[in-house]
Amino acid sequence: MDSIGSAGLRQGEEALSYPEEGLPGPSDSSELVQECLQQFKVTRAQLQQIQASLLGSMEQALRGQASPTPAVRMLPTYVGSTPHGTEQGDFVVLELGATGASLRVLWVTLTGTEGHRVEPRSQEFVIPQEVMLGAGQQLFDFAAHCLSEFLDVQPVSKQGLQLGFSFSFPCHQTGLDRSTLISWTKGFRCSGVEGQDVVQLLRDAIQRHGAYNIDVVAVVNDTVGTMMGCELGARPCEVGLVVDTGTNACYMEEARHVAVLDEDRGRVCVSVEWGSFSDAGVLGPVLTTFDHTLDHESLNPGAQRFEKMIGGLYLGELVRLVLAHLARHGVLFGGGTSPALLSRGSILLEHVAEMEDPSAGAARVHAILQDLGLSPGASDVELVQHVCAAVCARAAQLCAAALAAVLSRLQHGREQQTLQVAVATGGRVCERHPRFCSILQGTVMLLAPECDVSFIPSADGGGQGVAMVTAVAARLAAHRRLLEETLAPFRLNHDQLAAVQAQMRKAMVKGLRGEASSLRMLPTFVRATPDGSERGDFLALDLGGTNFRVLLVRVTTGVQITSQIYSIPESVAQGSGQQLFDHIVDCIVDFQQKQGLSGQSLPLGFTFSFPCRQLGLDQGILLNWTKGFNASDCEGQDVVNLLREAITRRQAVELNVVAIVNDTVGTMMSCGYEDPRCEIGLIVGTGTNACYMEELRNVVGVPGDSGRMCINMEWGAFGDDGSLAMLSTCFDASVDQASINPGKQRFEKMISGMYLGEIVRHILLHLTSLGVLFRGQQTQCLQTRDIFKTKFLSEIESDSLALRQVRAILEDLGLPLTSDDALMVLEVCQAVSQRAAQLCGAGVAAVVEKIRENRGLEELAVSVGVDGTLYKLHPHFSSLVAATVRELAPRCVVTFLQSEDGSGKGAALVTAVACRLAQLTRV
Ligand code: BG6
Ligand code: GLC
Ligand code: GLC
Hints:
Layout: H1 28-38, H2 44-62, E1 75-76, E2 88-96, E3 102-111, E4 121-126, H3 129-132, H4 136-152, E5 161-167, E6 171-175, E7 178-181, H5 198-209, E8 214-220, H6 222-228, E9 237-243, E10 247-254, E11 267-271, H7 280-283, H8 289-297, H9 307-310, H10 312-328, H11 349-356, H12 361-371, H13 378-414, E12 419-426, H14 428-432, H15 434-447, E13 451-457, H16 463-487, H17 494-513, E14 522-523, E15 536-543, E16 548-555, E17 559-566, H18 570-573, H19 577-595, E18 603-608, E19 612-616, E20 619-622, H20 639-650, E21 656-661, H21 663-672, E22 678-684, E23 688-695, E24 708-712, H22 730-738, H23 746-751, H24 753-769, H25 780-783, H26 790-796, H27 803-812, H28 819-854, E25 860-867, H29 869-873, H30 877-888, E26 892-898, H31 903-922
Parallel strand pairs: 2-5, 5-8, 9-12, 12-13, 15-18, 18-21, 22-25, 25-26
Antiparallel strand pairs: 1-11, 2-3, 3-4, 6-7, 9-10, 10-11, 14-24, 15-16, 16-17, 19-20, 22-23, 23-24
Helix pairs in contact: 2-13, 4-5, 6-16, 8-10, 10-11, 10-13, 11-13, 12-13, 13-15, 17-28, 19-20, 21-31, 22-24, 24-26, 24-28, 27-28, 28-30
This protein binds 6-O-phosphono-beta-D-glucopyranose (BG6) and alpha-D-glucopyranose (2 copies).
6-O-phosphono-beta-D-glucopyranose is lined by residues 542, 544-546, 607, 609, 663, 666, 683, 685-686, 753, 867-869, 902-904.
């Protein structure tokens, strides 16, 4: 066996040995001693195997590989960066679980200035044994009691205190302030805590106690506190090592390597929980009979086998077991034992530390042994010192192997040949056992020679670090509150939506009667949905949505469509009317040429998606432009005339414009061709609007009382009389003010694709100004109008998209953001689109209820034909609309049909009907 300490080792390797000189000479008893101590020797090869096996387990756990069960847990914390040094404020820190049976409360002041440290005030409380093994509630009540006892003598207010909770047991964290205990370790075994959120348990206890108003802001493992509290030095401190009652380490891992996190950037602190490392293959050979006995008699047999060789809770016990063994075999104390020596837990870590310390002198060892009821001779004292040294040296070496594994992992993760890193060390074993530290450091050098490691002892047991994390968590919590406040007005409740529905209903009635109303309720002269008898070839135009299209529609037993998209440059949409209509005719001519239709005068249906007062099917006076159009000299004109004039100007073509239809009507007709129950048309695209079949008797201004007529509601203008003021936010006001038609189309501006991105952008600007987003830095990009397209909402909210893709989308826009930012942006998008969908649903509910009542029906079954990019592309919009309608109009069974062919088909069908009727009148 390549035993450490044997001759011929390289320089530095002696760190792995411990003194053997002066052991009793060869005899039976000395053989027994040798045999005993030999068991605690670990060879370099064994340490290397442990290092390699632990590294393997760490990497397996990081990959999220569950089988075979990884030997370490690798628990991600929510700490994403080491301290900036700018954190400041006063914090209460509660430490539970690091140091034996005690609980510590600290008052930590962070100054925000590097190098300027205020000594924390602290108090330690002993946790009674019955509490450590009792009911969980009792433990947390005890903690709450200690907190107030400590705070009572501090000059602090009873309100608004922020607390960081250092809880040193394996926990699944799901947030900076949410952490579920996996299992107790060390000397704790309180009932009813495993599987529970320990932060909530503490909050509940503080509330039960009632003395102080304390906000538990963050929870951390002691290793994390140790790492985060490390003085900022030349090199980053990215590892926290604790050897106290138990042992463990944390380190900064590349987030992309932590499978459970779904993050591709930055780093995250991972708690290794190496205490549970249990690879029997590599640990088996180093486990002694004493380890087996200790494990067997412990609170958690079989668990934390690695920790039980290193942690301070166990070192004294291991020494005791060895001493008792040697005494029983007559090698120590003349074969005498004492009740103390034979009872569990009588030798503590402090005893071992003192006895092992060569400077302590024989007298001190003597005294300690005497206190245990033993009568040691001179050789006994020496042998006891050897035993202590052997147990501690092994602990330090094993700990070094584990730390070397973490360093190798850091090196792998960073893909670096050599690594310069600082390790913050904490815990009583590290702090008070100089030999432990030197053996640890020497062994690490040997096992990870490519790493240049500096060890930095933590100043105050990690309290400062816990406060650092708490400061960050408090800042994030404050940001969350601001985010919630900002988004609150977007979250509409049932009553608010029902009020929108009721107002809409009132406005519909007034509009139909010709009274002042923000709903114009424009008759369309479409009196019936298609009946399938329509036939012929038609041209159609589709103007006003995202795309301008020219179409050839062949209606036989089915419908065949050939179409082409043409662009309408913004300069044309907002130029002169003549220019716009000339451009349209140019596109038609081009289309006819390409389709071999030149010279034919097919009947033409014109989908014109703007509010028009129609006096017949082929006459529509543009009332006002909406959306991005603003061509001059068109408002107040008959659009069909404007088109005919342009045709005349172009001379070469003949066109027969038969019908002008709104896109809602085209969509209703198009879907109605497939489903005769389709009596509503809905658009949620660039703009939003709806039409439906109204009883003619209710429509003032159109002669006749029987039958129905399709009414173009122009609901985009709903609320232009101020009736939506209650719901309008300051962001809506900003979007409205910056639009080309301030004060107009207020409902549309809360719902449709042309505006949602802008609303989001204004909210993001606001949150940035509050410092909640993008670290408070305003970017030029975000100041740019329309930079945040509504399609981003659809992309960002897509369920299949991971947060990292959300970030990629925003980074493409030049918005560099953290994952916290990405999550908040997602929430903003959700709030804005949810409100849009709900408002739209309230509108549809008003329409279906009106139809139901018109017809005096108990229940109405009706279909809605829908079109528009927002409705079609957004992952949740359609289901939110449907859910709102179900809630607000429970007596209507509403089916939503997505229009696949666009409204051009509907315009052609309207044209077909008109042609058929015209023929009939001619006959
Ligand atoms: C199209 C219709 O499919 O949808 C158009 O053919 C309509 O008539 C449009 O205006 C609405 O959606 P968007 O998103 O293009 O405005
Ligand atoms: C135990 C705990 C771990 C802690 C360590 C040191 O191993 O499970 O969370 O960090 O002790 O206190
Ligand atoms: C705008 C128009 C309206 C159209 C809607 C959808 O609101 O005014 O006519 O139906 O956009 O495109």
